[in-house]
Design a protein that fits this description.
Bound molecules: S-adenosylmethionine
Mean pLDDT: 95
Structural class: alpha/beta
CATH superfamily: Vaccinia Virus protein VP39
Order of helices and strands: HHHEHEHEHEHEHHEEE
Distance between the termini: 34 Å
Strand content: 15-25%
Largest sheet: 8 strands, mixed
């Protein structure tokens, strides 16, 4: 693991825009500018980020308890924001082993915060691109036992990967080498509730040569084809087993536009 990749401050990066929404300090003026333009389209950007983090916390708690999972492969981890996935997993089961990956050099720079494991568990960070699933599985296989179930999570990541870049196929290629009893955990932004803002947001990304692939509920559900969805199935992120975690107050009655789901590989 090296930290020598340059950090490009000439254009916004999704990890840093998200960090700005979460009130973090690991972002630059270009990221803040983009975040503010997104806020002008929908003022609930920070609420979306918090609702998404809270889904990750609840899903990880469910996986560590009811799911009995002790191995986690998290792709598109983001800039560390406490509690991180390993802190939840190891609170439930201190022997949990976690591999984090992201392709943004800024995440690598901050990876030491992701590596503070419990003594009985393991955390590791791998710099990798989700569009190269075989490299990720190979690296993960050095830390995780791929003969035992793994919770594979891509949380708020797939809307940055287009169909042309094979978003659905890459999930298959990540899941294929994992054994029966593994889980897939996903969340994803959608334009289902406000097409106009969604189109404008896509335009903002396009102007900066970035992908924003907002998917419908049906397109999101297709990521789980062939798997057994855990109750309540595909839902709004805010509605996925709210009893398992902290309530996230959001303004107004309109849904926060993000879907989530957890499914078991048969
Ligand atoms: C919105 S953040 C989500 C962070 C975290 N998973 C969460 O939900 O709190 C999206 C993350 O996906 C990462 N990402 C985007 N495209 C990626 C790719 N092709 N390969 C790996 N990571 C990617 C970004 O760098 C960013 O850290």
């Amino acid at each position: 693991m090296t930290g020598n990749d340059p950090i490009d401050t000439s254009k916004p990066h999704p990890a840093r825009v998200y960090d700005w929404f979460l009130g973090g300090k690991d972002n630059y003026p270009v990221d803040e500018e983009m975040a503010k333009q997104l806020l002008a389209l929908d003022a609930r950007g920070p609420d979306m980020a918090r609702v998404n983090r809270a889904f990750m916390h609840r899903a990880t708690r469910w996986l560590g308890t009811t799911g009995g999972v002790r191995q986690f492969l998290d792709i598109g981890t983001g800039i560390p924001t406490e509690p991180n996935l390993h802190q939840i997993a190891q609170e439930v089961a201190p022997d949990s082993r976690i591999v984090y990956t992201d392709n943004d050099p800024i995440v690598l720079r901050h990876a030491e915060a992701l590596l503070r494991s419990t003594p009985g568990g393991v955390t590791e960070y791998v710099q990798a691109d989700a569009r190269d699933p075989e490299a990720i599985v190979e690296a993960a296989g050095k830390i995780l036992d791929l003969n035992r179930p793994v919770a594979l999570s891509l949380i708020a990541l797939l809307h940055f990967i287009s169909d042309e870049d094979g978003a659905h196929e890459l999930v298959r290629r990540l899941l294929d080498p994992l054994p029966s009893g593994s889980y897939l955990v996903l969340s994803h932004a959608t334009g289902d509730f406000d097409r106009r803002s969604a189109d404008q947001a896509r335009e903002l990304y396009q102007q900066r040569a970035l992908t924003l692939a907002l998917r419908s509920r049906e397109e999101f559900a297709a990521f789980f084809d062939g798997l057994e969805l855990i109750e309540p199935g595909v839902s709004l992120a805010a509605d996925w087993r709210p009893e398992l975690g902290e309530a996230v107050p959001v303004p107004g009655d309109e849904p926060i536009p993000g879907y989530a789901g957890v499914a078991r590989k048969p």
